[in-house]
Task: structure prediction
Amino acid sequence: MALIEPILNKKTAERVEAQIRSGGRNTPNLLFQGSLLAALLFALFVLGVLLFDVITDSWPVLSERFGDFLASPKRSSAEASGVFQGLRGTFWIGVAVILLTFPLGIAAAVYLEEYAPDSRLTRLIDINIRNLAGVPSVVYGILGFTLFVSLFNGVLGDREITLGRTTTAGALTLAILALPVVIITSAEAIRAVPDSLKEAAYGVGATKSEVIRSHILPYAAPGILTGTLLSLARALGEAAPLILVGAVQGRLGSRTGFFGLEQLGERFTAMPIIITGYAKEPGSDWIPVTAAAIVILLLVVLSFNAAAVLLRNRFESKREG
Amino acid sequence: MTTTALPDAGGEGILSGNRRRHNRERVIRYAVTGAALTSIGITIAIVASLIFRAGQFLIHLVNPTEVDLEEAGGEAVGLGALWGDQWAPRFFEFDIKTLLVGSIVVTIVAMAVATPIGLGAAVYLSEYANSTVRKILKPILEVLAGIPSVVLGFFALRWISPNLVQNIFSGAEGQNLLAAGLGVGLLTIPLVASISEDAMRAVPNSLREASAGLGARKMSTTLSVVLPAAISGLVAAFIVGTSRAIGETMVVFLAAGASGNQALFTTNPLERGSTMTAAMASQASGTDGTISELGFNSLFFVGFVLFAITLTLNLIADRFVRRVRQAY
Result:
């Protein structure tokens, strides 16, 4: 007895019948789905191995002298070295990104979504920003070197001492690097604001800037904040541009405190650079120190990432519900 | 007084409101326009800073100044230095193909890892995972995307190279292009996955439903309906991933093992090598006194080549992405 008769040929009919009678089990399908899941779990596995490897390597340092490790600079022996100067540099870079990139990036996104006419110039700006997001970070280092180190002599501080390779030069370089991603993600968030919301505001006589301030930006705020947090995390993890700008990979002779403003005109290092310097040291006694520095950097970067993801999930489910 | 006697600000008549409000609008418009134009300024500044010294590098190769001659030991270097058997600015050997081939080897290894894993993960997330599973599994890729490249460089150097590469290939050196390529591949997975997933989610459900309605299994639907429909986006994911892999610096700088910015030409991924990006980072980390001007400017020349390659790839990828947007 055949379930399917006239149109199909016999072979197809048999296959379909076998399919229907097999009780829903389907080996190729399961294999396919399994290998897809395996791809995803491979990423999880790598992440697990990486974190396990780094944490076990770092344990001697983190368990025995955590406070000392946070408070020490790089010294000639691994046992006495720490990440103080790296944390300090990374903090100031973060400040620059927040103060410069966020306002500039959000303003540019507002222009693209709310003001820009449908013109050639707009399309050029649009393509240009997306290309900037794909420019390798090391190339931003070249820009930073030419502009802030060579041309502006490090912006602050004494050129004779710093050769222009100041904290300010490094921070400005990463602020520029983070800009395109901030613009792109903010523009996406602004695009998602419903027209009805804007029209309601225009309808009661608000001007464009008032609509933007009172309706568009508040509604888009979670999306904008998510994007900016992610780009901040990315900027804080970047090492290549800072190497080009001349961040110190070895020992940095500096007695400036964590919040001391005078360091803006002094030579600098940052967490990723400290890690690079430690990783390049020969000798296995530097491995725990390198791993410990990595754990600290991961704590900083991943907490920004986690905040961004949580924020997005929370608002996504709120708006859906 | 009649309404026509009201001050006419900006030619919009009675609806134009008061002048201060109007001025404020104008100021804000100028401010945001200026912010957007900054991005053009950045691109111009990047190109200018690359071209100036890259050009200087080439000109000084052909037409050495007295300083160049002195630094090079009395002999003119010449354009021939761009083709040899090693990249070693200290010895005035600038064989660009050493770096190009190094970059290509690393990129091929990286994409051999990132394409199947990234695409597989994306297909699972987009076609198979329900929203709960998605919410649990998607953050894995997001965390991986958030790991700084210097961390993966350390991982490639201290774990991938000894535990994988040297275990499998007995002849491999402690630092090698293969380990670097694998590290770069891990970094590229989330990027490939996220662009591919976006492309597949943009495929309208009606196509899937039509396919299911004809009796196709989920696998057939995925392979012969969803993937072909999303192909532009998938190609874009591959190209953007390639561009990212070529431009990745820190993993190669730490794990590929070219020390002191000197690398012999090699096509063997088990040997030490250098890439365009690693050569730039090494050149910049050298101590200032020992670098000749020619050697220093070679950094900009390499940067220019790198920029040109990634820009081309990004523009091509942009074309493909736009095709997806137009289609649906």
Q: What stands out?
A: Chain A has a mean pLDDT of 87. Chain A touches chain B through 92 residues (CB under 8 Å). The CA atoms of residues 17 and 23 of chain A lie 11 Å apart. Residues 83-272 of chain A form a domain with the MetI-like fold fold (CATH 1.10.3720.10).
